[in-house]
Amino acid sequence: MAKDNKEKLIQATDRLLRDRSISSITTKEITKEAGVSVGVFYNYFTSKEDVFTELIKSFFNYSLEEMKKLQAEITGKNLRSEIKFKEYLIKGIDKDWENRFLNSDILTLSRKDQAFNELMMDFNEGMIAIIVDILTIIQADAQDNDLVIKAKLIMNLIQNSYPVFSSFEDDQEQEAYMEQVVKIIFDLSFNE
C-alpha cells in the first residue's frame, strides 16, 4: 500500500506536468490528482521538487533502457538498423513532447539543486556513451573524438527538439517539423 501511494503521487505529478510547469503546480493539486491526503505526500516527499526528481529518475531509467535496447538492435549501416533507429527517434521525441515544460523545469531545478544537476550530468554522460557505442557500430571508420561530438549534438537535438517559442498551425505542420528533426539526427548518424 505504501509503495502504491508513492507511485500514485509520482504518476499524478506526471499527469499534471503534461500541461503545466512544476512551479505552477501545488502539493495540494498533486495529492488531489493522486487521491491521497497531503499528509501522505509528506510521508514520502518533502517538496514538489522531490517528487519531480523521482519522476525524472524514472524517466531517465526508462530512457537509458530504451537506448540500450536500440543499441542491441543496431548491427551496422544497413536498412534494418536505419529503420530501428528512426523508430526509436520518433518514439523518443513523442515521449519527450508529452511534457512541454520538462526541459525548462529540469534546467530550473538543476540551477537550484546541485544534487539534481549531478543527476542530470550522470544521465547525459550515460546516454552519450551509449550513443557513441551506436555510432561506432554505424560509422566504424570514424574518429572517436568526432563520435563524441556527434553524440553530444544528437543528445542536445533530442532533448531540445520541442519548439519553445513557436507553435504549430496544425498537426500536419507539427509532423513535418518532427520529420525534419529526425532527418537531421539520422543524417548525422548514418550519412556522414
From TrEMBL:
InterPro entries, sorted: DNA-bd_HTH_TetR-type_CS (IPR023772), Homeodomain-like_sf (IPR009057), HTH-type_Tx_Regulator (IPR050624), HTH_TetR (IPR001647)
Keyword ATP-binding: no
Domain HTH tetR-type: 3-63
Keywords for the protein's UniProt record, in alphabetical order: DNA-binding
Domain of life: Bacteria
DNA-binding stretch(es), residue numbering of this chain: 26-45
Pfam families attached to this UniProt entry: TetR_N
Sample GO molecular function, one term: DNA binding
Keyword DNA-binding listed: yes
Name of the protein: TetR/AcrR family transcriptional regulator
Protein species of origin: Aerococcus urinae
